[in-house]
Design the sequence.
C-alpha cells in the first residue's frame, strides 16, 4: 500500500490510513508544528499583559492597566483578523501548505524581536509580526487538516479534537517555562524562549512537509497575473492609510480594541457578502453559508468571554488569586496552563465520545448552543468569590472555573474548525475557515474592550451581565436548531 508520506497518493489512502491514533499519519506533521507554535504563542501571551503594565522597577513598561488590556485584546483580535490575509494568499497565490510554512518563519522573527528589541519598539515590531504570521498559520493549518478527510469520513471531528490536543500541549508548557524564566531572569528571556520554541517547530515541520496531501498545495482560485499589480497597489495603499491614521492620532493605544472590533465586524460582513454573492458557488453551498451565520454569532459571544483569560483573568490572577504553594508564589502566567491541562485530559474523551456516537452525536448547532450556555455558567461561578480582597480567591476555585471553560471550549472550538471545512464552498475553502477565525477575532477584541469595565471592588455586575448574555445566546440557538440544520443542507 502507498504510504502517507508519498503525497501524490495521500488522498487515495487517507480514508484507510489510521496510523496516528486512528487518524491519517499526515496529521502528526500538522499536530507537531501547531504544538510548537502554540508553545511560543501562549508562552509569550502568558507574560505579555503583565510586561505591559508592570512598572519599570519590575521589568515592565508601566502602561496603564486599561490601556494594556486593550492592547492585548486588539493584538489577539489582529491575530485572528490576519487569517483573512493568510487565507486569501493560500486560495489565490500559494496554497495552504506553503503559507503555513512561511507563516511559521514570520512568527519566529516576531518572537525574536520581542526578545532583543527593548521597550515599545520591540512590542510593536514583535506583535505585528506574530499577529500576521499566526493568522497565516492558523487558517491554513486547519485547512490542511481538513484536506486529510473526505466529507463522508466520520473521523473528522475526532481528528480535529486530536489536532486540538497538539495545540494545548504547547499551550500548557509555554506559559510554565516562559513564566519561570520571566520570574528568575526577566521578561526578555521569556520572550526568547518563545522564539526558540517556534524555531524547533519550524525545523520539525520542514522535515515532515512532504507528508502533506497534494491537495493542500493546490491554489483553488488562482489570481490572474494581470491583477497582481493592482492587488499589491491596494495592499500598499491600505498600509499607508493605517500609518497615516496612527500619525494623526485616530488610532491610539487606548482605542486599539475598538478599532479592531470595527474593522473585524466590517470584514466579516464583507466576507459573507462576497461569498454569498459569488457566481462560483452552487445554491446548496450558498444555503450552507447562510447556515453558518448563526453559528458565527454564537461563536463571537463565546470567545468574548473565553478570551478574557488573557485580560481580566490575568489581572484577577495577579491581584485576587492566592497563588501560594507551600510557601512559594506561583508565577502569574502559570494560570494560563490550567486550561490546557484539562484540554489534554478531556480532548481524548470528547474525541472518543464523538467517534463512539458517530452519526448519533449532537448536531453542530446543539454543540454550539451548549458551549455558550456552559461558558455563561463559568462566568456566573465567579460570583461565589466576588468582591473579595487581595489574594483571597483560592487556587482551587480558579481550577474549577477553568474546568468549566474547557468543557465549553471543547463543545465549540474544534467543532467550529471542523464545520467550517464542511460548510465551505469549493472555491472558498480556506477563506471559510478564515470566517470562523474572524468570529474569534471579533470575540477576542470584544474581550479586550470589555476588560476596561472590570472593577475588582464591584465584580457582581460584570460577571452577572456577561454570564446571562452568554446563556441567553446559547438558548436562542438551541431553539433554532431545526431551521439552522435546514440551511446546512445535510451537514450536521
Sequence:
Amino acid at each position: 500500500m502507498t504510504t502517507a508520506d508519498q503525497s501524490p497518493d495521500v488522498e487515495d489512502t487517507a480514508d484507510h490510513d489510521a496510523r496516528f491514533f486512528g487518524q491519517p499519519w499526515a496529521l502528526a506533521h500538522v499536530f507537531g508544528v501547531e504544538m510548537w507554535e502554540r508553545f511560543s504563542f501562549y508562552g509569550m501571551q502568558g507574560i505579555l499583559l503583565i510586561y505591559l503594565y508592570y512598572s519599570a522597577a519590575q521589568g515592565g513598561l508601566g502602561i496603564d492597566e486599561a490601556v494594556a488590556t486593550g492592547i492585548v485584546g486588539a493584538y489577539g483580535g489582529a491575530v485572528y483578523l490576519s487569517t483573512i490575509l493568510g487565507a486569501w494568499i493560500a486560495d489565490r497565490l500559494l496554497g495552504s501548505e506553503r503559507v503555513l510554512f512561511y507563516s511559521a518563519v514570520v512568527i519566529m522573527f516576531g518572537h525574536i524581536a520581542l526578545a532583543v528589541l527593548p521597550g515599545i519598539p520591540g512590542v510593536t515590531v514583535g506583535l505585528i509580526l506574530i499577529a500576521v504570521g499566526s493568522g497565516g498559520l492558523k487558517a491554513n493549518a486547519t485547512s490542511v487538516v481538513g484536506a486529510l478527510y473526505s466529507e463522508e469520513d466520520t473521523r473528522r471531528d475526532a481528528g480535529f479534537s486530536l489536532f486540538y490536543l497538539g495545540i494545548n500541549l504547547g499551550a500548557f508548557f509555554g506559559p510554565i517555562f516562559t513564566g519561570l524564566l520571566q520570574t528568575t531572569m526577566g521578561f526578555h528571556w521569556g520572550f526568547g524562549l518563545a522564539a526558540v520554541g517556534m524555531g524547533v517547530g519550524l525545523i520539525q515541520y520542514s522535515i515532515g512537509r512532504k507528508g502533506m496531501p497534494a491537495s493542500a498545495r493546490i491554489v483553488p482560485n488562482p489570481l490572474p497575473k494581470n491583477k497582481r499589480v493592482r492587488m499589491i497597489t491596494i495592499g500598499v495603499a491600505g498600509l499607508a492609510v493605517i500609518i497615516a491614521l496612527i500619525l494623526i492620532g485616530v488610532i491610539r493605544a487606548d482605542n486599539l480594541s475598538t478599532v479592531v472590533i470595527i474593522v473585524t465586524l466590517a470584514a466579516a460582513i464583507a466576507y459573507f457578502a462576497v461569498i454569498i454573492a459569488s457566481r462560483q458557488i452552487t445554491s446548496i453551498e450558498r444555503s450552507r453559508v447562510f447556515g453558518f451565520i448563526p453559528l458565527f454569532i454564537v461563536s463571537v459571544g463565546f470567545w468574548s468571554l473565553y478570551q478574557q483569560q488573557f485580560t481580566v483573568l490575568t489581572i484577577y490572577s495577579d491581584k485576587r488569586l492566592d497563588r501560594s504553594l507551600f510557601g512559594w508564589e506561583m508565577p502569574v502566567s502559570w494560570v494560563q496552563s490550567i486550561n490546557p491541562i484539562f484540554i489534554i485530559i478531556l480532548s481524548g474523551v470528547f474525541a472518543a465520545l464523538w467517534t463512539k456516537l458517530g452519526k448519533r452525536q449532537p448536531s453542530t448547532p446543539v454543540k454550539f448552543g451548549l458551549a455558550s450556555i456552559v461558558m455563561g455558567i463559568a462566568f456566573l461561578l465567579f460570583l461565589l468569590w466576588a468582591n473579595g480582597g487581595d489574594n483571597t480567591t483560592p487556587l482551587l476555585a480558579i481550577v474549577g472555573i477553568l474546568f468549566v471553560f474547557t468543557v465549553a471550549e471543547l463543545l465549540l472550538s474544534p467543532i467550529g474548525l471542523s464545520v467550517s471545512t464542511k460548510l465551505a464552498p469549493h472555491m472558498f475553502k480556506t477563506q471559510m475557515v478564515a470566517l470562523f477565525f474572524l468570529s474569534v477575532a471579533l470575540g477576542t477584541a470584544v474581550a479586550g474592550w470589555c476588560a476596561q469595565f472590570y472593577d475588582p471592588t464591584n465584580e457582581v455586575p460584570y460577571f452577572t451581565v456577561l454570564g446571562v448574555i452568554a446563556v441567553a445566546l446559547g438558548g436562542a440557538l438551541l431553539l433554532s436548531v431545526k431551521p439552522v440544520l435546514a440551511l446546512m443542507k445535510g451537514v450536521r
Summary: DSSP finds 18 helices and two strands in the chain. The longest strand covers residues 324-325.
